[in-house]
Amino acid sequence: MGMNRWVWVGLLVTACTGGSATVDAGPDAGRYDLPGPYAVGSAHTTIHSRDGGRALPVELWYPAAGAPSDSSFPVEEFEAGARRTTLKAWVDEAPAKCTPRLARSQRDAVPAAGTAWPVVMMSHCTEGFRFSLHSIAERLASHGFVVAAPDHVDNTRFDAGAALNNTFLQVRADDISGVLDALLDASSVEVPAFLRGKFDAKRVGMVGHSFGAVTTAKVVERDARVKGGFLIAAPADSPFLNAGSVTAISRPLSYLLALEDNSISYLGNGFIRDNFARTPKPAWLLEVKEAGHWTFSDIAGLGGAYQPGCGAGFRDPDGGAFIYLDNDTGRGIAQRAVSAWAAQLLREEAGAAAELSVGSEFVVVKKR
Q1: Whole-model pTM?
Q2: How many distinct structural domains can be found in the chain?
Q3: CATH (domain of 309)
Q4: Distance from C-alpha of 267 to C-alpha of 154, rounded to nearest angstrom
């Protein structure tokens, strides 16, 4: 699952730089540590690709009317029928601290009043799901963003089969752009009626994890509507995938790096640092101690898979045994970072960039 190891490219690695000087500004503090002022709604729909050939299940999260609440539903209810049964079995098998049992939103809630909301597109890891990062989506919605995440059909755990290569990377990028087409079309019948016209075409960003991070970079490179990207646990550009693309990217990328990521390995982390040094400003790199590839996700350990980042592991490259960062802590780091990043990118919100630049016991931040 996730990105394959990068060992075969070891001889290609040269010096990788880390950008500007390291900052460790003390304990986490700020508005994005906690949910924002909005209740969170969520909805499901299906949106077809631009050519009509791919029917993409899409999950939407948005600011909802009313006071923030404890509304939730079991994670397996993201699916229906046989898939729901299978997903429940996978959830039950996962350690409770690694895979959350509840998604914290209200299905089909009335949207909050107001003008169109900034949009954050989201892309999952290879053999992941549109809801793999649902806790990040919930945090964003609580702070006034709409989040849209499609299943990349043929590349979820339910229908795995697509290759981890540049050809399918382009398919994934086209998935995102096609979904965005529909969201920004106030007359699209594929968007739930109560959300049509709620998406701000001038304020669009994107977040992705693993293969979804590479997808994010490709979308930022090719879709001018997307103002920037936040990449979790993968580089935009490496000799293995999307090689050479970083020089074509004209909008900013920021990164969340797991220091104990033995899925992409220390070599993959080297490529992240190199990408960070070469992508447009303003850019942030957050390096998280004791974190693994799925530490930040909501599917760590799901069904016995997605293990690096859940419980016990081995350090890369020396193989020493250790315990990964607590998953709630890891997800909290990601929720806070992505929300602050979106606020500075899409709303130019006072203080958001400064908050994103604050480190902690587990997080070292670099900014350029």
Answers
A1: 0.92
A2: 1
A3: 3.40.50.1820
A4: 28
